[in-house]
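Hi, here's the filled form for the chain we discussed.

Project: internal
Contact: R.S.
Residues: 111
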Amino acid sequence: MLLAACALGALAGVAFAGLWLMVVPHAAHRRFWVAMHGVSREMLQVDELGRLMSAYRRLGLVAGGYVARNLGGTLLAAVPVVALLFFVKDQAAFAAAFAVSTLVMLWPRRS
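And the returned structure, exactly as it came back:
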């Protein structure tokens, strides 16, 4: 039973990571932080209220899009995890294997 729970947890972790990366590739994080750098820099240098409000709007759009994309990826990727969780009796082993395999799959790699 323990081995089956670990195997299903690892499978769920790989499935979660694969689906999440399809929706939120590593490049999305870099694009977000580059955009945040530009917006925050502009906010610190602006002198006019209109330009400041424009920067805040852009900040909201950039952050909102990033959060929405990550939330959507998480919800989509959680479907196989929830489905497999119903078949497992040893949920601690499942969770441990899931965490390890997800971490290994999502760990940022140098390109």
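Let me know if anything looks off before we file it.
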